[in-house]
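Hello forum,

I keep getting stuck at the same step: I have a sequence, I want structure tokens, and every attempt I make locally crashes halfway through. Rather than fight my setup again tonight, could one of you with a working pipeline run this one for me? It's a single chain of 621 residues.
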Amino acid sequence: MSVRADRADLVAELNAQWHRLGTESGIFGGNGVFLIDVAGNWTGCAPRPWTRVQLTEQWDLAGVLGERPGQLEFVTLSMDGDTLLGATTEEDEVWLIGVRHLRERQETAALAAAQESPQERAAAWTSLFQAPGPSERVREMWAHGLALNSATPDDLRARLLGVSHFLLWRRLPAAVVEAAIVHPDGKVRQLLAEAQPDLTAEQWTRLVLGEREARSRWILTLLAADQRAELTDTAYEQLAADRSVRVREETARLRGLPIRILTALVGDEDPSVRASACRRAWPHLDGPARHRLLSDPSGKVRVEALLRHHREHPMPRSVFDTEGVEERATETCRLERGIAEHLARHGEPAQRSSLAGNPHLDPDLVELLAQDPDENVRFVVATRADITEEQRAGIPIDFDPRGHYYPLDWVMALHEDPGAMRRLAASPHPLIRRSVARARHLPADVVERLARDDDRVVQLFLAESCDDAPADMLLRVWRWWTGSLSTPDRPHGHPNFPRRDLLRYADDPNARMRQLALDDPKSTPELVERFSRDSDAEVRHRAASDPRLSPASAVRLLDDPHERVRYAAALHPRLPAQVMVRLLRDTDTAQTAARNPALPVPVMKRMLQRIQPPATATPGP
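Reply #2:
Ran it on my machine without issues. Output:
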């Protein structure tokens, strides 16, 4: 229907007519929720960027959507994806256009698209490279997609170095790593060091020592130190003698630096290097060497030496008041009794909190801080390694189970001690138990206890980190956990996750459980097709990721209202070539389509030629 644009009550009339048509056609679900696209830049190729909305009591779509009130350009869709209602403005009229049985239309169109002969498939790939050629933005998306495509051959990956930064954030084969080490672009070499895991000591050595500029060597040495990387003895020798002060300073932080080189660096001519070396070399120095550092002409060096010296010897007030000492000393140094007691009784909350973690604190001061009026102070005391579990249970804390807490280092260090794990798994403090659950292997009785823990995060960490996590607990965690973990695909990807007798969940009201039915060895392509039409987007996403899905259904799911489902469908290996070409030509979908593992290698090569056109020879004089 249409409404004339010159009506005095245009906005009110458009709102009324749109709502009437929406009600009659079923745009609004039982709870009034529907989808809307007001982006205004839809290309006709990529799926629309739908947003889930609900009308308020004072809604006014015609008054706020468009360049001015009454000049409408938007599309609405029912949550089941079956009814569409759009608004568009012509010269003197505003049209409201509805389409029903949209899913049936999509089914018909998808079936037609899936009927592709070998000749049509070949013609489709040829058309990808016909004029007009891809835009610069599309070529950029192709590069990123090919870099992330698991099927891209190694020789093509190497050619993408310096073209797509996404390439280096995935684990690369040795040939591509070798190409990156000698790549002429320093940004590529730096990103390799930053992002690529498990570089060997020899690779790190060639990477760092191959840099001619001091700044580049410094950045790579810093990255190696931050990542606790190992280098060769040759690298340690050369870096310790590097002409750059910043390189030598970071060299002192390298994990595998031989003690003889580390202790030699405390005699470096530059105070920054001496200070850096002092932090790790102190336990290996003799008396005269320590004395020289304590009396060093540089205050920066003296502070580092004092902080190490007073981990063994009580720190007096005269040293505690030295500039740069107080804050770090409160947490790590052995303080004279008077200083420690004054801080425990009269210090600021931040000082008391730092003191509460000091490993050298007298037991009576620990007990005093355990009853501190500040919640943060009590929390730190409750996580100390040197108190009993009975003491820990008596410390009043307010633990927020939804808060983000880091695992306790001292608990992590005891992961190989079965006795300690048994004791700590029974701790009243959730953070202690969470830290225990981070162990890769645990005694069977500890696993059983933690698998029944009242704190769900304990079970979650057990599912993520512990290879001994039981199947029934993994299934429980899967039922409620919908977030992401640092270990990919856990709990579902855990080796103990159940893989059989899952068809019983095919009709489960919980969509999380329902999708598991496709993991059962007895599941069928028919079930995949059924799930591709499920009311829940998560189940449809699982079906869209299944290689048994029919080509027609993969095409149909490209128009799904939910982005994750569309993304999975665009990666499906059974998509017709003509559909993939359409996706590859569109800026919004080109990167995802270029990640499709079914992309033919000859097509990849031609795409790369467009991404990196051969350099033209310059004629001589």
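The two ends are 70 Å apart (CA to CA). If your local run keeps crashing, start a new thread with the error log.
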